[in-house]
Design goal:
The protein has 450 residues and is α+β, with helices and mostly antiparallel strands. 32% of the residues lie in helices and 26% in strands. A hairpin with a 3-residue loop joins strand 17 and strand 18. The radius of gyration is 22 Å and the shape is globular. Bound molecules: uridine-diphosphate-N-acetylglucosamine. The site of uridine-diphosphate-N-acetylglucosamine has 20 residues, from helix 2, helix 6 and helix 7.
Length: 450
């Protein structure tokens, strides 16, 4: 491994990963050809953590090669799991022997989804101990709905030294009715995991309806759980005594697919996006068509074609089946290419606009008023040095680079690689002028003050 220094101090492995490489994009080339979408990160993560609950050997196919998956494997291995790679995207995960103590708190802080261990450990061992999660910074990201649900199932919660510890009274949770005050993907998943082996029936009212909720339910049911209603506004879970291992394939990543759809719409050209479920992409397809982009649904592909100018529009992000918040920054880049004033309102997070300053460096004219970005579009963007402020914002910078005049350098790309499998290779294969380069002078690579 290369050891990088800045101001004479060796950088930790994390820093090296985050700061020592950049993505360089030279804009102005249309995208042409086809791209294969990987398995969905946000389905793979809960399913990987659910194997702890299952407690025997599972073979999981279509796992994306992204950093959040690698960190999750590291966490599971620290707990004693045996994980074997069977092919590029297929892993055997054996959680027969596990110990919930002893995972380093820094590992939990490296990602958001590590908190799915709360539900899995409680369901399997009757107690859980997890460090506070990290993840992208979109303002406050409380976990009160997770805690409220786990308490309702009979968990006693203690928060100390950066850990969340929960004990089930009598060693087993008891099913009950839970009403979520807000729609939360994470809380829905945690309660589903915890309730699978609880005594009696749990009903979740007002759950999230995202495709990955359905995928997790399908995985758990394949392992012997009894979950119905996933994907609707009420989920019913009849507790079972135990689960068994299975072989399961993760669904395609709708956010990765949507990102390539917007890249093709922004850069122009014609791209077939393979290995998708077109139904999951409906809200994105509808907006693109409204803007004058042609989208053709096939069985497991969508073809995106843009030849003419884009029309302005308004977008508001919502929980599924609404327009996804994880497509917000990419969509703002596209809106910057449509003549006239467009609006993008963030309906899920309190602050997801940190990327706007970066786009302004490239000449975009965007004002933020409360939770709405007001985009005056139609002027060409100019290549500039920008950074990835979070996962989806980072990929939005790449899309901005594809349409900009000149060269764009995106730094802090470790954030992008948390959730995109081979983004540079996939874009190169459809004609983008993009590469990943090592930053020659480490001191230049240190985080820039804004
Ligand atoms: C998941 C996704 C993330 C996506 C988000 C919304 C993973 C690993 N991450 O995040 O990519 O952007 O869904 O689609 O799957 N909230 C509370 N209390 C809680 C829980 C959430 O107030 O207990 C709020 C959040 O602050 C946010 C909103 O609810 O404003 C939605 O969050 P949630 O759906 O829980 O997102 P995550 O599961 O963290």
């Amino acid at each position: 491994m290369i050891r990088y220094y800045a101001k004479g101090i060796p950088l930790s492995a994390d820093w090296q990963y985050k700061y020592m490489e950049k993505i360089v994009v030279r804009g102005g080339k249309p995208l042409l050809g086809s791209v294969e979408i990987s398995g969905m990160k946000n389905a793979a993560l809960p399913i990987i953590y659910a194997t702890v609950l299952v407690g025997s050997k599972c073979v999981i196919e279509n796992i994306p090669s992204v950093r959040d998956v690698a960190i999750s494997f590291e966490i599971l291995r620290e707990m004693g799991a045996k994980i074997r790679m069977l092919s590029r995207d297929t892993y055997e995960i054996d959680c027969t022997h596990m110990d919930i103590e002893g995972v380093s708190p820094e590992l939990f802080r490296k990602m958001r989804a590590s908190y799915y261990l709360l539900g899995s450990e409680l369901g399997r061992f009757g107690r859980a101990k997890v460090g506070f999660p990290g993840g992208c910074d979109f303002g406050e990201r409380p976990i009160d709905q997770h805690i409220k649900g786990l308490q309702a199932l009979g968990g006693t919660v203690e928060l100390e030294n950066g850990n969340i510890s929960i004990e089930a009274e009598g060693g087993r949770l008891v099913g009950t009715n839970i009403f979520f005050d807000i729609v939360s993907v994470g809380a829905t998943i945690n309660i589903m995991l915890a309730a699978v082996t609880a005594a009696g029936t749990t009903v979740i009212d007002n759950p999230a309806r995202e495709p990955h909720i359905v995928d997790l339910a399908n995985f758990l049911n394949t392992c012997g759980a009894n979950i119905s209603g996933a994907g609707t506004d009420m989920i019913r879970i009849k507790g079972v005594e135990r689960l068994h291992g299975c072989t399961y394939a993760i669904i395609p990543d709708m956010i990765e697919a949507g990102t390539f759809m917007i890249a093709a719409a922004a850069a122009g050209g014609c791209v077939r996006i393979d290995n998708v479920i077109p139904k999951h992409l409906e809200s994105i397809t509808a907006k693109l068509e409204e803007m004058g982009v042609e989208v053709e649904d096939q069985d497991d592909a969508v073809v995106v074609r843009r030849s003419g100018p884009l029309s302005r529009t308004s977008v508001k992000t919502h929980p599924y089946p609404g327009f996804p918040t994880d497509m917000h920054p990419q969509m703002t880049v596209l809106l910057s290419q449509a003549a006239g004033v467009s609006y993008l309102t963030e309906g899920v997070y309190e602050n997801r606009f940190r990327y706007v300053d970066e786009l302004r460096r490239m000449g975009a004219s965007i004002k933020v008023d409360g939770r709405t970005a007001i985009v005056e579009g139609g002027e060409p963007l100019r290549g500039a040095p920008v950074k990835a402020v979070d996962l989806r914002a980072g990929v939005a910078m790449i899309i901005a680079g594809l349409v900009a005049v000149g060269e764009t350098e995106v730094t802090e790309i470790g954030l992008i690689e948390r959730g995109y499998d081979d983004i540079v290779g996939k874009l190169q294969r459809i004609g983008a002028d993009i590469e990943r380069v090592v930053i020659p002078d480490p001191e230049q690579a240190l985080p820039r003050a804004n």
